[in-house]
Amino acid sequence: MPFKIVPGRDRKLNRLVKKGATRELRRGQALYRAGDPGGEVYLVTSGLLLLTAQYGGRTERTVDLAGPMELAGEEGLVPGAHRWTNARAETSSQVVALEGKAVAQTLQTATRTFHAFLQGREGAIDLARIPGIPRSSGGARGRLAAVLLHLAGRFGQEEEGGVRISVRLTHQILADLSASHRSTVTTLLNDWIYDEVLEGRGKELRILHPKALTALSHGTGSLKAPGGKDSS
């Protein structure tokens, strides 16, 4: 998972961001491809990047996202490393290119930034584990619930009555991240919106009852929102 940074809290990192070259990306435009040489990391200042990987030689699926104030392309921190994933803009986006070696040196001397990096690594492990949630622990329901909670933790904005995930998510992105079929994701989201656990606003989602999703992600039974309908 790309780690979120606050440049203003780290003077060295803030100087790097100010000196970095800004790049505008159109929707669908590639930033880099798997196998490309590294050397730079990218701070997303607006928009959303999809990080994708090839499976079975042909199938490409989303394995992570990079949103506002998150760093993408962390392999650029390692001299001589190559890109592990593809990165392209899901929406019109803006990124700032930072020298990987300089960012790595900053991580070594800035406790707060290094802590954010470690949190990002921990989040990446958590996200990678979601596709392995077995049927006995909720199956597709549990996996999708876990993905939504993960994204709410990264991109959520608390509002009266719920948490809005502030990036636009397609059903295919959610299907890729939860290792589910797109049609299954569509059905589950519609059910949960009907049950008043979620609220849909275009491609944005608002979680009305996080505890209900947490219970489902743990495989502890049917999903029922307080005051809502039972979707068991």
Verbal overview:
- With about 230 residues, the chain is α+β, with helices and mostly antiparallel strands.
- The protein has two domains: about 5-130, Jelly Rolls (Sandwich); about 135-215, Arc Repressor Mutant, subunit A (Orthogonal Bundle).
- Helices cover about 35% and strands about 25% of the residues.
- It has seven helices and twelve strands.
- It has helices spanning about 10-20, 100-110, 110-130, 140-155, 170-180, 180-195, 210-215; strands at about 20-25, 30, 40-45, 50-55, 60-65, 70, 85-90, 95-100, 155-160, 160-165, 200, 205.
- The strands form three sheets. A four-stranded antiparallel β-sheet has the order 1-8-3-6. Strands 2-7-4-5 form a four-stranded antiparallel β-sheet. The protein has a four-stranded antiparallel β-sheet with strand order 9-10-12-11.
- Helix 4 (about 140-155) packs across helix 5, helix 4 crosses helix 7 and helix 5 crosses helix 6 (about 180-195).
- About 40% of the residues are buried.
Which CATH class of the largest domain is shown?
Mainly Beta
The total of helices stands at 7
Portion in strands: 25-35%
Q: What is the number of beta strands? A: 12
* Global morphology: globular
Radius of gyration: 18 Å
Spatial strand order of the main sheet: 1-8-3-6
Provide the descriptors you would attach to this structure in a database record.
Jelly Rolls, four-stranded antiparallel sheet, 7 helices, 232 residues, 36% helix, 12 strands, alpha+beta, Arc Repressor Mutant, subunit A
What does the secondary structure layout of this molecule look like, with pairings?
Elements: H1 11-19, E1 21-25, E2 30-32, E3 40-46, E4 49-55, E5 59-66, E6 71-72, E7 86-89, E8 93-99, H2 100-109, H3 111-129, H4 139-155, E9 156-159, E10 162-165, H5 171-178, H6 182-194, E11 198-201, E12 204-207, H7 210-217
Helix pairs in contact: 2-3, 4-5, 4-7, 5-6
